[in-house]
Every structure is written in structure tokens, then in C-alpha cells.
Design goal:
By secondary structure, the chain is of the alpha+beta class. The protein is built from 7 helices and 8 strands. The chain has helices at about 5-10, 15-25, 60, 70-85, 85-90, 115-120, 150-155; strands at about 40-45, 50-55, 100-105, 125-135, 145, 160-165, 170-175, 180-184. The strands form 2 sheets. Strands 3-4-2-1-6-7 form a 6-stranded mixed sheet. A two-stranded antiparallel sheet has the order 5-8.
């Protein structure tokens, strides 16, 4: 399932290295900075397989990063999880490409009901990771990926740093609500 995305960091290493110094102060030991309003999306299209991996501070999606203890917070986390479980509504893909979801994995300390409050106190910067694998019967019909629905669903997300590997090679770019389409 993760074979394509495991290769992505190596393929985009020059891009990551260029940003490493800029992000170092906020990175907590990794190349990705935890910055509210900014999410990261890795996209790999290989033959009929489309993989999407979204990493975002929980603040962008649920509006907070602490453990959900109140009924309102728990309801918000459950709502966001339901939204994230529907990638075909969050990511605009040409219907002619005939994409269907084949696998998904959602990870966050906020989704772990068994996690203690002590762990959350030490983990101030909660993140949400969503990994999707789709099969597209007509991958040649995929000209672009529309992130507009994602920005609309999660308005606190102001920018998505996209790293893409597709039939036309690799590229890195930034998407915003006003410039939400990414060409393959």
C-alpha cells in the first residue's frame, strides 16, 4: 500500500533539502514544519493507482489540538473523521477517470480514545495524517486534482504544500483557496 509513497521522499529530496533550513526552527527534528493554516499533500499517480497522503495540524481541521474532552470537542473530532473518510468528496477528480477508493488510513492522537490526557499535554502540536489509495480505471483522464472541496470543508487551511509525482514527472507547488487546482 505504501510502496509508492515510500519512494516519494527520496524522489523529492532536493526539494525537501531546499526547504529544510527555512523549516528547521519549527521542525522538531523533521523536514516538515508544524504551521497552523498550512497542510502538506503528497500525490503519486502510477498507472491506475492514485495515492494521496495529507498531513495537517489538527488546528486546521478541527479547530484545536488538545485532547477532546467536552462533548462538543468529541463531536467535532467525529465529524472531521467522517469527512476525512470520504476522499472522493474532498479531492475533486474528473469523473471520467472512474476513480474508486481501495484503501484508507487515518491517524491522529485525537482519534485515539484510549490516549491519556497526560500524553496530549506533552503532545501540544497534534497532527492528522490521512492516506488514501484509489484505483482509477481511466488514469489518462486525470488532468488535474481540485483541492477546492478540501479548502471549503476546512476553511482554516490557508495553504497546501503539494509534492506530486505523475506521468509528467515530479513537481512541488503551493495550492491556496484561490488557486486550488493542481495539474498532473
Amino acid at each position: 500500500m505504501r510502496r509508492l509513497l515510500l519512494a516519494l521522499p527520496f524522489a523529492l529530496l532536493p526539494l525537501a533539502t531546499a526547504h529544510a533550513e527555512k523549516d528547521h526552527d519549527h521542525a522538531h527534528g523533521s523536514l516538515d514544519a508544524h504551521e497552523h493554516g498550512v497542510a502538506h499533500l503528497n500525490v503519486v499517480l502510477d498507472d491506475k493507482t492514485l495515492e494521496l497522503e495529507l498531513e495537517s495540524p489538527a488546528m486546521n481541521l478541527v479547530g484545536f489540538e488538545h485532547a477532546a474532552s467536552s462533548p462538543a470537542d468529541k463531536a467535532k473530532v467525529a465529524d472531521v473523521r467522517k469527512q476525512l473518510e470520504q476522499p472522493l468528496t474532498l479531492f475533486g477528480l474528473a469523473s471520467a477517470a472512474q476513480c474508486t477508493e481501495t484503501d484508507e488510513a487515518l491517524e491522529s492522537p485525537l482519534f485515539d480514545d484510549a490516549t491519556s490526557d497526560d500524553h496530549h499535554a506533552a503532545h501540544e502540536h497534534s497532527e492528522i495524517h490521512a492516506h488514501y489509495q484509489l484505483t482509477c480505471e481511466q488514469p489518462g483522464k486525470l488532468a488535474e486534482l481540485d483541492l477546492g472541496p478540501l479548502f471549503k470543508a476546512f476553511p482554516a487551511t490557508q495553504k497546501i504544500t503539494v509534492q506530486l509525482i505523475g506521468p509528467n514527472g515530479q513537481k512541488g507547488l503551493e495550492a491556496t483557496p484561490n488557486k486550488a487546482t493542481v495539474a498532473f
